[in-house]
Amino acid sequence: MCDHHYDQDEHEYALCGVCGCETGESDFEDVDDEFNSYKPMCPDCQAAERLRNQCCEYCDDPAEYETDSGFLCCEHHSQYVDGYMSRD
Residue 49: pLDDT band by 50, 70, 90 thresholds? Predict the structure, then answer.
C-alpha cells in the first residue's frame, strides 16, 4: 500500500458530512448509536437524519423524539416522560 493512500478506518476522527464538525468513535461511547466511517456523521446529525420524515407512533404529527418505543411527537413524548416520572 502506498503512503498516499487514505484509509479512513485507520484514523480516529473524520468530519461530519452534514455539519462539518470533527467526529469519531469516541463521540458514540455514551449514545446508543454507532460511528459509520464510510458516511461519517456526528451523533446529533445521525439522530436528526433518523427523525427526518418520521411520524409519531400514535398520531400523524411529525416525530420530534426517538425513544425505545419508537418515534414520538412533542405531545406524546411528554406523556411518555410523565409515565416514567410517575413510576419514580
Answer: very high
Contacting residues for 24 by C-beta, under 8 A, at least 6 apart: 11, 12, 13, 14, 35, 40
CA 62 to CA 50: how far, in whole Å? 12
Q: Could you tell me the pTM of the whole model? A: 0.66
pLDDT in tens, 58-68: 999 999 999 88
C-alpha torsion 35→40→45→50, nearest 10: -70
Nearest Cα neighbor of 14 from 34, 40, 36 is: 40
Domain boundaries, the chain: 1-50, 53-88
The answer to whether residue 30 scores a pLDDT higher than 60 is yes
Structural contact between residues 42 and 34, judged by C-beta atoms closer than 8 angstroms: no
